[in-house]
Model the fold of this input.
Amino acid sequence: MTAIDLALVLPVLAAICLGLIRSPILGGWINAFACFVELLVAILLVMEPPAPTLLFFVDDFNVYLVLLTVFVAFTTALFSAGYVGHEVQAGRISPSLFRLYHAGYQLLLAAMVLALVANNIGLMWVAVEAATLITVVMVSLYRTREAIEASWKYFVLGSVGIALALFGTILVYLAAQPAMGPGMAAMAWTLLHQEAAAFAAPALNLAFVFLLIGYGTKVGLVPLHNWLPDAHAEGPTPISAVLSGLLLNVALYALLRFKMLLAANGAALAPGPLMIGLGLASVWFAGLMLYRRRDIKRFFAYSSIEHMGLAVFAFGLGGAASFAGLLHMAMHSLTKSAIFFAVGRIAQVKGSQSLADIRGVTVSHPLLGWLFVASVLAIAGAPPFGVFVSEFLLITATVQQAPWLAAPLVIGLVIGFGALLRRVHSVGFGEPGPSVTLKVPLSTTVPLVLHLALVLIAGLALPAPFVAWMRSVAGMLG
Done:
């Protein structure tokens, strides 16, 4: 059995076991332990990548995303052990739904890893669709009217998007057939990329439009974003961390794979202008909407839209900007998941998600409050954190490659920066609002500190292997 087989089988076996465990506390820690074992398998996958087959492959692009996905899934599972246990004790989640949560968590991890390592464009689509359906169930976990409405909205919009992505996938297969013939070979990334220059350009052009809309819905790009704020606000906070930190990356990865085919074709349209337009619109729209949010989780959902817009803008620009986009994907995953760790506990100690009720956290809960402040400053792009480095590199690349885009990009960043500073001041400082006495456990502080430490290290000095990986992948993306 290869490392890929283990990475896909272990979460499924863990899901079966967790579905049978009745103890909320035991289930939480077994979920975290299972994710730790899966992290070890992901490290093995990085160290010894297996040879590609028609179904699975590992290259410079997806190998790091697999490791990032499993790492964030592990730290989020640690956070979940305490967070969801408290929700069960408070009566917000029944024990049976608690088992459903942890089993679904492992299946969601399996679906995301499958989407990343799939060498078959159809299999990748199936994995993204599976992740969508699992997330729909997870968002509705509280079984409130608002949670069920959010999950249905996600299901409807996500299904429309994924259906359009399926049509685009079929068009890519049809474009490849004249050069590669029918069969599995005409659906394998490794072979498609080699033969892309001979594909029918008109079919590829039409396919990419459908793929951009379809997978763009999953990325949360404006105007395809409507499901994302509701899903964040009404679902369990650990699922918000997984959505923002991981699932959006998986959808963007799928889109970028198809972008690589167009770039290798030569005669196909340049996807850059479409991606730049949607990315910049997302940055501006989300930045402006941040000023009107009253729910703390919905607030940071719009922040995720902004940052995914930045990444799409970077990949649309290409060249040196692709390097910045890859760094931004990793920094956003680590930082935004850390923010949701803090937000989840803050909502519990304050008994509310309303920003009007959450204030003075650094006074009432100093450690939690200051970690929250540091996380928000990091996602806002303040130095010396890694998000500052990725945004600085993106601005520099934009000035060099498309100077006329630099001004709207910087203005969009400033709009979002102002909104984040405004909220961090009101939430972190001032007279504390009503709160409950709740000890913040190590299962919250350890993942938070670990994520912030990694983002800080990346901001001060990027490790050489990480830089080499980003340069290699940036060259692949063009």
Summary: The two ends are 35 Å apart (CA to CA). DSSP finds 19 helices and no strands in the chain. Residues 272-478 form one domain.
